[in-house]
Write a structure and sequence with these properties.
Two copies of one chain form a homodimer. Chain A is an alpha+beta fold and 150 residues long. Helices cover 44% and strands 19% of the residues of chain A. Chain A binds a DNA duplex (25 and 25 nucleotides) through α2 and α4.
DNA sequence: TTCGTTGCAAAGCTTTTGCACGAAT
DNA sequence: ATTCGTGCAAAAGCTTTGCAACGAA
């Protein structure tokens, strides 16, 4: 099923309305090419000529989190605010490699990790739902520049 | 080296003072038996008769993050605020298994994951620093209670 | 004595909420 | 016609900061 349809279906199931704002916000999220925060999303929507309010963005993101289509990630060991969001369907795995020098984020796909999660939960009698791996490492460019992290 | 000494050494290196507040906050962190937030730490310190201010706690946590002795983790896919902290030295791995039913957190140790991270970063030319894996799963108790997550 | 540190209160930010108007069904 | 959603502005919460008093070296 198309991911848009999944969202529409979720709204219908909860007796919620298919508004233009929700459609546009979701479309914008699909257009994002990297994990994004509220301001990035708002800026993109403004660029597209939409006049969605920040409040509606927050409300829609909350909705999407509840639908399971969206998730939040924290990219820095110290990140407390400026939550970053990422579409669940967009990446095969929920795993990111974060450069501790420049902050660049790239997705990683590794069947091994899924298997490890399955093994761990199975051993402990848990029912696996999802996982998120963050690897912090210095990218080749930053190494070349001689950037060091504390 | 003792972990307390590492903190004291870090302070010395930066020309910072060994105050009672910092010592007590660090001691309290050592006493924590699970990832904690600022309020939990403050409550514990009050219980111990300390009258440390919230501002000092924030300042000291920041310091500890910079020293590399402490790290933050986000436990829920939707957690945006109420940052949780965890001592780096306390757990062998930075990996947690989070119950999506009751929110209970337990530590996991799995050599496999470290190996996966090494492989991934090596392949891409990154220099590995650390990683954090969060697995979201339903614990046996919640399964028994018939709790379901969205 | 000399700075760094603390506590308090105020300021700063992000996120949430109340309410009246507007839109979807 | 109803009911839900939106925008605005205000409120709420967490975190940071300025400043005078305090304490470690």
């Amino acid at each position: 099923m198309e991911i848009q349809q999944q969202f529409e279906q979720f709204l219908s199931q909860r007796g919620m309305k298919h508004t233009n704002e929700r459609r546009e916000i979701f479309r914008a999220i699909l257009d994002m090419d990297a994990p994004f925060d509220v301001d990035k999303l708002l800026f993109y929507l403004k660029q597209q000529g939409e006049k969605t309010s920040k409040a509606t963005i927050y409300r829609t993101l909350q909705l999407l989190l509840e639908s399971g289509l969206l998730r939040t990630i924290s990219l820095s060991p110290a990140a407390a605010r400026d939550t970053l969001y990422s579409l669940c369907g967009k990446y095969r795995a929920y795993d990111h490699l974060v450069c501790t020098g420049c902050g660049k984020v790239r997705d990683i796909e590794k069947q091994q990790i899924c298997l490890s999660c399955q093994t761990i939960t199975k051993e402990l009698g848990y029912k696996l739902e999802s996982h998120s791996l963050r690897i912090f490492a210095l990218c080749p460019e930053c190494q070349a520049k001689g950037i060091k992290t504390c």
